[in-house]
Amino acid sequence: MKLCRFTTATSPDVRIGLIANADTVLDLTDAGIRRMQGLIERSDVGGELTRLTQAGLPEHSLDSIRLLTPVESQEVWAAGVTYLRSKEARMEESDFSATAYDRVYDAARPEIFFKSLADKVVSPGEAVGIRRDAGWNVPEPELALVISSSGNIVGFTIGNDMSSRDIEGENLLYLPQAKIYTASCAVGPWIVVGPSEDDARQWSIRLEIRRGGNVVFVGDTRVGQIKRPFSELVEYLCRSQRFPNGAVLLTGAGVVPPDSFTLEARDSVRISISGVGTLENPVAVV
Ligand code: DO4
Ligand code: MG
Q1: Residues 6+ apart with CB under 8 A from 79
Q2: Of the candidate ranges 94-103, 118-127, 227-236, 262-271, the one whose mean pLDDT is the lowest
């Protein structure tokens, strides 16, 4: 089942929707649901969503609504160097920091970093940013875990951990500048509730980048290539840290364009995860 946040053409109010089938969204407003958090915090969220599908709620066609990021008030965090491909790419980009990436891939403690406040997260269709002071910018297509305040994985969505590789490669201490800036994090298009980690590990991730209508990069990986169990990533995220609004955790990138590739303004970044859907954003200089 898929939960979304959306607006309609006739009202700027943010609504919560349940995607009933490929074309239709059930509007949960009439059931008194105006925020996602109450649903995400329920221990029986799957059962509650099933009940809501049978409640005769008003419908909208998916074409007629504007989807917003499903990140409502959660902080967004990200795990890094969870795929072998990510470790190798980062070791290539930096002599200076290569051993750090090598070590963290095998260390007991994963790399986990803060990525975005909720109100800075980019929605589907909005522009993601490339920094004006960077010359080598890439998207990072990542499965995102939606986590309740008690640390349970409630669902899955898609994240784009936009990164400036030249800034990150110059010095590891510049990582926050390479990763956290205006429009550097897109999440969407909705949250899939129900699948287990074993289900998610069967999913494929595809990154496609278009320029002027032509595909200039396409690459694939499988979620099953992530080295660490999701429970381990979540356990480290929640160690000595409370998330009263829950959290969203991006699980790392396993598709990295070749070193000769950098994004340009007006490119389109399309990330598809087989069990979730597609997150698509144009690119703008920020
Ligand atoms: O250590 C740098 C960031 C790693 C990352 O974002 C990733 O592997 O996805
Ligand atoms: Mg990443």
Answers
A1: 110, 111, 112, 228, 233, 237, 249, 250, 251, 252
A2: 94-103
